[in-house]
């Protein structure tokens, strides 16, 4: 099972599209700015090329590891050490029978959503408690990442 870098890249780029919508002032942008103390003045000194470039890099890293959570066959490959050429006939037979099982956008979206809800939300909520951030902040940021993980999971699982 080869790594589909196109799927990972598309999944990473999807976070920017979601972010442009999610953080638009007509959606959650104004509330997010208020909850974080961000102002128009503060945004003027930001190097947006660097910000977007690093955002894509970080999203690429997330998408790379997310594939292990949404494509079950990567776990089977891990069980044999990662090299399918060295696998026993039982692995080949297993992959012939189940190599495309649960490989749909719907299934990937489910696992992406669960990752957002049960991994990302608690991490952001815990940090927010210690940073004295509001629950609105938690819901906006965790909601964004949960939507992103749902979409990323769908792309990765469908295209792997």
Q: If you had to describe this structure to a student in words, what would you say it looks like?
A:
The protein has 160 residues and is mostly helical. The protein is 76% helix and 0% strand. The protein contains eight helices and no strands. Helix 2 packs across helix 8 and helix 7 runs antiparallel to helix 8. The radius of gyration is 19 Å and the shape is elongated. It starts with a helix and ends with a helix. The model has no long low-confidence stretch (mean pLDDT 94).
Question: Helices and strands in order, then pairings?
Answer:
Elements: H1 5-22, H2 29-36, H3 40-44, H4 48-70, H5 73-79, H6 89-98, H7 105-130, H8 135-159
Helix pairs in contact: 1-4, 1-8, 2-8, 4-8, 7-8
What would the keywords be for this entry?
mainly alpha, 160 residues, 0% strand, 76% helix
Summarize the structure.
This protein has helices at 5-22, 29-36, 40-44, 48-70, 73-79, 89-98, 105-130, 135-159. The protein has 160 residues and is mainly α.
SSE-based structural type: mainly alpha
Q: What is Rg?
A: 19 Å
Query: Would you tell me the overall average pLDDT?
Result: 94
Distance between the termini: 8 Å
Uncertain runs: none
Q: How many alpha or pi helices?
A: 8
The percentage of residues in β strands lies in: under 5%
What does the largest sheet look like?
Answer: none
Order of helices and strands: HHHHHHHH
The backbone outline, from C-alpha atoms, is elongated
Q: How many strands in all? A: 0
